[in-house]
């Protein structure tokens, strides 16, 4: 697992916390991980990676 430091503008974080806290996770890291995973899945990028590794 890779760890990264992410800086977000205050307004962006307020929206994320308001809309997703408790729905996509309780901790900041869970929320961001789930947003990123949902985006990659929606764009079909995770499937492409899976195909390359297979």
Explain the overall architecture.
This protein has 54 residues and is mainly α. The protein has one domain. Helices cover 65% and strands 0% of the residues. The chain has helices spanning 10-20, 28-42, 45-53. The protein is elongated and about 40 Å long. The mean pLDDT is 90.
Radius of gyration: 13 Å
Question: Could you give a short account of the major beta sheet?
Answer: none
Approximate helicity band: 55-70%
**Uncertain residue segments:** none
Average predicted confidence as pLDDT: 90
* Derived structural class: mainly alpha
Task: Name the helix and strand elements from N-terminus to C-terminus, one letter apiece.
Answer: HHH
Question: In terms of topology, how is this protein built?
Answer:
Elements (H helix, E strand, L loop, with lengths): L9 H11 L7 H15 L2 H9 L1
What's the short story on this structure?
This protein has 54 residues and is mainly alpha-helical. The chain contains 3 helices and no strands.
List the defining traits of the structure above.
54 residues; mainly alpha; 3 helices
């Amino acid at each position: 697992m890779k760890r990264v430091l992410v800086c977000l503008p205050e307004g962006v974080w307020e929206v994320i916390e308001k809309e997703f806290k408790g729905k996509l996770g309780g901790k900041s890291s869970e929320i961001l991980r789930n947003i990123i995973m949902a985006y990659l899945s929606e764009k079909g990028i995770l499937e492409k990676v899976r195909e390359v590794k297979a």
